[in-house]
Amino acid sequence: MGWARGGGGGGPGGVSTAQNIKKANPNIEVTLVEKNADYSTCFGSNWVLDDIVDMGDITFNYKTLEQKHGIKVVIDEVIGVDTDKQTVRLAMASQPLPYDRLVVSPGISFRWDKIEGLDESTTYQVPHAWKAGYQTLILKSQLQAMPENGTMLLAAPPNPFRCPPGPYERASMIASFMKKHKPKAKLIILDSKDKFSKQGMFTAGWEEQYGFGSDNAMIEWVSKSNGGEVTRVDPKTLEVVTANGTKIKADVVNYIPLQKANTTAARMGLTDASGWCPINQETFESTLVPNIHVLGDASVASPMPKSGFSANSQGMVCGAAVAALMAGDKANAGATLGNQCYSLVAPDYGISVAAGYKLENGKIVKTSGGLFPKDGSYAKEAKSAHGWYAGITGYLYK
Question: For residue 156, what are the contacts with CB-CB under 8 A and spacing of at least 6?
Answer without folding.
Answer: 167, 168, 189, 190, 191, 192, 193, 196, 256
